[in-house]
């Protein structure tokens, strides 16, 4: 299975990027995870949506060719960051590559609620888009106080969180296989 991760943070030391990389390494025998580059995407612009820059075409093509999308989002001001909204705008238009694409969501923050509000909004956006993106039900991964749960190398050291991730990955694969029968 080939999964692409879309991380809603472009900062170098992003905890959400570290979480995506941790998943990429820990579950490499279960699925291939490519973390997409959101930094180089320009702002969505309806004037160029039919013939966007190559970087947008390549990004959309990677999503189109993936079996599933993993969204890993920070929370900014009680919602998803602008960079993530920008990605969704591009994906939602013209060739609508998210149609029928299974996806799942997780997120990390230094606060204790671990991106609850951002993820609720993201679920609603993906649902309301009318792009029929099937979302893994339940399995809500809110990694709160992430700075206390991850070491400098980006390894999740908080065993209960790691065990929960193991369960979520199992559930995702079961759900994905059921969805694709
Ligand atoms: C934040 N942060 C934050 N945290 C949170 O739990 N709820 C929130 O609403 C916000 N709002 C917010 C706005 C802005 C503009 C910034 C820069 C930050 C803190 C945020 O969780 C923290 O910076 C994370 O480390 C961001 O994720 P990455 O970049 O580490 O992946």
From TrEMBL:
Residues 1-144 form the NADPH-dependent FMN reductase-like domain. It comes from the Bacteria. GO terms for cellular component: cytosol. InterPro entries: Flavoprotein-like_sf (IPR029039), FMN_Rdtase-like_dom (IPR005025), NAD(P)H-dep_reductase (IPR050712). One of its GO terms (molecular function) is oxidoreductase activity. It holds the Pfam family FMN_red. Belongs to the azoreductase type 2 family. This is NAD(P)H-dependent oxidoreductase. The lineage of its organism: Bacteria, Bacillati, Bacillota, Bacilli, Bacillales.
């Amino acid at each position: 299975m080939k999964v692409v991760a879309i991380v809603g943070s472009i900062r170098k030391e992003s905890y959400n990027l570290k979480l995506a990389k941790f998943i990429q390494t820990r579950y490499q025998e279960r699925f291939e995870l490519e973390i997409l580059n959101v930094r180089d995407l320009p702002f969505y612009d309806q004037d160029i949506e039919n013939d966007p820059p190559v970087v947008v075409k390549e990004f959309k093509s990677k999503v189109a060719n993936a079996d599933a999308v993993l969204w890993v989002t920070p929370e900014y001001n009680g919602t998803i960051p602008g960079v993530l909204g920008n990605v969704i705008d591009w994906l939602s238009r013209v060739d609508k590559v998210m149609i029928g694409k299974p996806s799942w969501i997780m997120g990390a923050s230094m606060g204790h609620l671990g991106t609850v509000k951002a993820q609720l909004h993201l679920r609603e956006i993906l649902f309301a888009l009318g792009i029929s993106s099937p979302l893994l039900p339940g399995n809500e991964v809110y990694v709160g106080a992430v700075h206390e749960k991850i070491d400098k190398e980006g390894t999740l050291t908080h065993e209960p969180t790691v065990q929960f991730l193991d369960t979520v990955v199992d559930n995702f694969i079961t759900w994905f296989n059921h969805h694709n029968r």
